[in-house]
Amino acid sequence: MLDKSRSKELFKKAQNFIPGGVNSPVRAFKAVGGDPIFIKSAKGAYMYDEDDNRYIDLINSWGPMILGHGNGAIEAAVADALKSSLSFGAPTSKEIEIAELITHMVPSIEKVRMVNSGTEATMSAIRLARGFTGRDKILKFEGCYHGHGDSFLIAAGSGAATMGTPNSPGVTKGTAKDTLTAPFNDLDAVKKIAEQNKGQIAALIVEPVAGNMGCVIPKEGYLQGLREVCDKEGIVLIFDEVMTGFRLSKAGAQGIFGVKPDITTLGKIIGGGMPVGAYGGKKEIMDFVSPQGPVYQAGTLSGNPIAMSAGLMMLHYLNDHDEVYEQIGASGQYLAKEIAKVNTALGKNYTINQLGSMISLFFNEEAVENFDGTKACDTEMFGKYFQGMLNEGVYLPPAQYESWFLSTSLSAEDLDHIVKSHEKVLKNLLA
Ligand code: PMP
C-alpha cells in the first residue's frame, strides 16, 4: 500500500476550515471511500501527492489539461501576461483575439461572451434563451450535469448524483417547476414533452456526448432529432460543451456529429487550466446580451488577461495541431480495446463507452445509454476498483458517474501501465 499519511493529516485539518474538507464535493472521495489525496504538483502525465507518490493522471483537472501538465507554451504565455498586471476590468485586445479564434474553430458560434466557469456559462445561456424567447421552462436530461445553477440541480449527474442530492435543498419549488427532464437518448420522450408544453419551453440543454453520468454517446440521429424538435417548436438548442468542447474535436462534439446548436457553452479546455467559461452562438441571439441587448450578464474578472492568455495559447495550439486529436483518440481506442480484452479473459463483459479521449468503464454488463444504465452499475465494486488503481499509481475520477480524460502526455508505457494495473486490480476483485 502507498503511504498516504500526509494526505490523511491534511484532510483531517481541512475539515476544520472547509466544508467537507474540499472546495468541490467529488474531490472528497465519498463515492469511493478512503481519504482524498492532496496534490502537491503535476508535470506531463503525472500528478505527485503530498507524500511524494506519483500517479498517472486520468482526470487532468476534469478535462482542461488536454496537453498534460506544465505545457511550456501555455506557461510562457501566462508568465508573459503577468508582466502587464493580473487584471484590468477593462477591454483588452486578447479578448477579441480569443473570441475570433473561437468563432473560427466552432462555426455555430458567431459571437461569444467570456465568463469564469462552466456554471456561469450555462446559467447565462438559459437566461439568454429565456429572454430571447419570452418563455420560462427549460428541458434537460437525466444524468446530465450543467454546473450548480439552481435550474440544473434536478436529476443532475456528476457529483450531484454521487452525493445523492440530485434535488438539492435550497433550490426553490418555483425554480424546479420550470425545469423539465427527459431520459437521454430517447427522442420520443422529448417530442412528447415538447408537445405537452407547447410554446412554453425556452431552451433544451444537452451534453451532446454526456460525460457526467460516465461517458454516454448519443444514438445515431439523436442530436439531429433534438435539432428538429427545437426548430419545429421555436426552442433554443443549447449544447453544453464545457467537457466536450475542444476535446472531441476542434469544434467539439458538434464538429463530429454535424449538428449546429443555437448556443454553445464552453469551459475547461478554453481556459488552459485557468478558471474560464464562455457561451456563444447565433448573432441574433447573442445580441440580446447586455449592453447590446436587454439580458443582463456581467463579471468583474470576466476576460481576465491571465486566463485569456492561457486559453488563447491552448486554443491556438489545438487549432494548429490536428495530430492532438489523432493521438488522444488513438490512446482512447487502445485503452478501451485492451481493457475489454482483459475483462473478456476474466469472464466479464463490462460496458466500455469511449469516444476520442473520453472513456468510462461501467461495472454493468448491459449497454449504458442513459442515466438508468449508469445507476445500474455496481458502484461498490467501482469504489474498490478505484482504490486498487490508485494503489497502482493510476488516478481515476473518483466516481462511477464520471468520464476519464486523456491527455497528449500519456506515453505508450503509461497506457500499458494502466492496462496492466487494470488486469491486476480486477483479477484481485474477482478472486
Ligand atoms: N457543464 C458540464 C458539461 C460540465 O461537465 C461541467 C463541470 N464538470 C459544468 C457545466 C460546470 O462547469 P464548472 O465546474 O466550471 O462550473
TrEMBL record:
Signal peptide: none annotated. One of its GO terms (cellular component) is cytoplasm. The keyword ATP-binding does not apply. The keyword Cytoplasm applies. Homodimer. Belongs to the class-III pyridoxal-phosphate-dependent aminotransferase family. HemL subfamily. HAMAP family: HemL_aminotrans_3. This is Glutamate-1-semialdehyde 2,1-aminomutase. The gene is hemL.
